[in-house]
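batch_manifest entry 22 of 60
target: Peptidase S9 prolyl oligopeptidase catalytic domain-containing protein
source organism: Pirellula staleyi
requested by: lab member K.T.
priority: normal
notes from requester: please return tokens only, no post-processing; we will run our own comparison against the previous entry in this batch. if the run fails, retry once and flag.
--- input ---
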Amino acid sequence: MKYLPLFFASVTLVLTLSHAVLADGPADNKTENVRRIPKLGIELTAEQRASVEQALAPIDAELVKLRASKSPLVRELLPDVEIFAKALRDALQYQEFFDPKDLEFVPKCAAEGLARAQSLAKGEAPWTKQTGLVVRGYRSTLDDSVQPFGMVIPANYPEIAAEKVRCDVWLHGRGETLSELNFLRDRTSNVGQISPADTVVLHPYGRYCNANKFAGEIDILESLTAAKRMYRINERLVAMRGFSMGGAGAWQMAVHYPDMWFAANPGAGFSETPDFLKVFQNETLQPRWWEKQLWQWYDCTVWSSNLVELPTIAYSGEIDKQKQAADIMAIAMQQRRLNLEHIIGPQTAHSIHPDSKKEIEARLASIASVPRPAAMPHLHLTTYTLRYPQVDWIRIEGMQEHWTKGTVAGLVSEGGIRIDTTGVTDLAIHFKAGTAPIYPRGNVKVTLDQQELFLPGVKSDRSLSAAFYLDGKTWMLGKRDTGKQLRKKPGLQGPIDDAFLSRFLFVKPSGKSKHELVEKWTQSELARAIEHWRRHFRGEARVKLDSEVTAEDIADSNLILWGDATSNSLIAKINDRLPVRYSDDTIVAGEASKPSNQHALVAIYPNPENPEKYVVLNSSFTFRDYAYLNNARQVPMLPDWAIVDLTTPPGGVWPGKIVEANFFDEAWQLKPYRDVNSTYDDYQPLAVPQP
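--- output ---
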């Protein structure tokens, strides 16, 4: 999906953020010549550059003093100031003024940043009590970057009772020129597509243009956490909504986090990769077997049964090509005996019909008026990865095999708790204090896959917790004793891209590889990784030399190690404890071995120095420039490990030629050898019947 640039007047900006043109065209299906995203902006004149620098300088001067302050208020609210300085500095440093009109917002941006800085220096923060359009910021745990988000605070917010404060999260559409500066301009001048009565609306930046995947997904969670800290929001009255690319984000956040929202309202966009690219992009896909498996991360169709307890209202324009997203979800839901409510704007292309909007708002208000139980008595969870292990009081702790469906269905009744599973080896239940809907006297019977187990009674605070694990075919009460044996578990299950959904650190080699080709590739890919993390996920990657890594770094960060066992001392230190490793002049992965003078090893594994965090060898996020052209392409491209032939230069799709690749098993050990050219037919994507 491609959108008009974000430098027009107010109304145009709203349309830009939420309306797509029909297609990217055949040129964006060519992998050999990929256009740059975001494009380079205009060349500023010396006078224009000096003007921006002059506007930025006073804010930077105030920030120096504020960062030295020990005031809790200053520390808490500093990101609210820093977002303005970052927007100006990045636009200047990275050539992201995309039109001369972009410069018109500089004085307003600088004035607001400076006013906030000066107020905060006096211990004041008037913007925190402001209604209407308010821009806020938070510091991301991923990379310590400050990230902006917009709020729409209703005028009567101070009078709304805390338990009635509803929050709608609205995800924006695709905007290839949606820099921080343009986002701030939009969020300080436009209410946006929605503004329900008595409702706070949160507009995440989403770390630019990624359909709220990966770091964009974490941005939603982190900005929502920040908003809940800043404003009185009822956690049971949060809705997930969006249109176009934002509709795609709303679909994936709905199916992956169904217990976070009282309702979901995705509009247009896409909901899976293969059929959308065929219909919208006219693209012929030829995925490797592991790519097809990894589509299941963000293909919402295979997760659709998770909507059983989440009221969902889809919207499409009748003649919008992106109606495909809801149509294919409707098919997937029908297969699971769910009937999607799909509101269709009559004779409408890529926009929200006014009558449809009224109907959607009325239905959401009706849903919000019915309190959601503190603990749902009936639950269903489908997952393909322990990245998404939980819904309400049920949590999957172990799977029989990743990227093969695991399910849990739970029912609480007077007779106890019934749980039925498939593909699951370890699970836990947890009812928070005051939420266990079970009679508080006597033992609690749990019927787990028709096997009866008995728990001690509900505690006096009405909480209940228990863990179970599968021993052969028998469920046992308690947590599995794994000793020192590794197991894939929530937050530590791969694949490579998972390392960039939590705090990470790029670790540069202080030495040089003895192989010239490997050294050249390493330096080039590291430089690219640093540049593209900023360009695509809008943060400055934290970088250290291997000799500078501290015990604190090992304790709190995933270490992204670049180089090989001869150039990076940390790779050398852990090499013998990895199932894929360097051995003399060879890279060895079970039956697969390749000469190390012209190959690179890419992998993710629990850090042998701290198994609660990852180490990654020689990779940032695995989709590349070609995927930037269409958000449906932005999916994981590599599994848990791969060997790259460096005699094929890196390109817009791959970092070289992938000659070996596979997942690790559930114990983080090598799986049986599998040829990279073999097929994977277990996952058969759906297709919308064409008229």
